[in-house]
Design goal:
The chain is an alpha+beta fold. 19% of the residues lie in helices and 31% in strands. It is built from 2 helices and 4 strands, in the order ββααββ. It has a 4-stranded antiparallel β-sheet. It is globular and about 45 Å long. The mean pLDDT is 85.
Amino acid sequence: PYTTLFRSGVGDNGDVLIRVRDTGIGMSEKEIAEALEPFRQLHTTRRAGGTGLGLPLTKALVEANRASLRISSAKREGTLVEVVFPPTRVLAE
């Protein structure tokens, strides 16, 4: 079993950060690159099904909104995914 943590906030310069961290199996740099390709699924010991579109679709939506996507991960430690929307893409109240 693993845990997932979700956080969001506004940075000092007005950008909006969405951060998702899990304590799952983690990925190498090569596996991250593979997971970002459409219809690619990593061969892991854990099989949950799916189409291999989760990360590629997320990346496309992030880029379409002129935001950035950062993924850092370590085997047996988990993964951190960050989406950062610049202040020019954030609606002020």
